[in-house]
Design brief:
- GO terms for molecular function: dTDP-4-dehydrorhamnose 3,5-epimerase activity.
- Homodimer.
- By secondary structure, this protein is mainly beta.
- It has a single domain, classed as Jelly Rolls.
- The chain contains 2 helices and 13 strands.
- It has a 6-stranded antiparallel sheet with strand order 1-2-10-7-12-5, with no helix packed on it. Strands 9-8-11-6-13 form a 5-stranded antiparallel sheet, with no helix packed on it. Strands 3-4 form a two-stranded antiparallel ribbon.
- A hairpin with a 6-residue loop joins strand 1 and strand 2.
- The mean pLDDT is about 95.
Amino acid sequence: MKIKDTKLPGVLILEPLVYHDHRGYFMESYNKSLLEQIGINIDFIQDNQSLSKEAGVLRGLHYQLSPKAQTKLVRVCSGAIFDVIVDIRQGSPTFGQWIGVILSEENKREALIPKGFAHGFCTLVPNTIVFYKVDQYYSREHDRGIIWDDPEIGIDWPNSNPILSAKDQMLPLLKNAELNFAVKE
């Protein structure tokens, strides 16, 4: 597995080794011991999956407040997404900055998103299935988000008129969002 750092500390892009033959392919999408060897010790306790029927579905930007904050390992089983991660750790030198990466069934990349980062994605093709592991259970009480088109964050989404849930349409700007993450010293 190749592991690539990003400009956001702790956010990693994982590229699993893929073994192809005449039948198709095989890959390990998650190997706890390999991650532990590089100092990442996460106890994933729940798997989630979403299907977006159309291209242009945007989900996010979501996060959960501490103590129910989630680390996520995100991958695409079918289709493709523009995956976005935003640093929401107060005091961080990269606070409010974002990265975007294409995750697809073809490139098989995965995004490891630590606590303290908001996450969202926009589907690039119809019938996209996104799968992700989390290390905390969902908590409605701690569920929060940031509006997808916050001008201060300035995300360059691939779709300027996405398909949004009613909930995601009502999310606040980052400057008005409830945050309780700080940079660990």
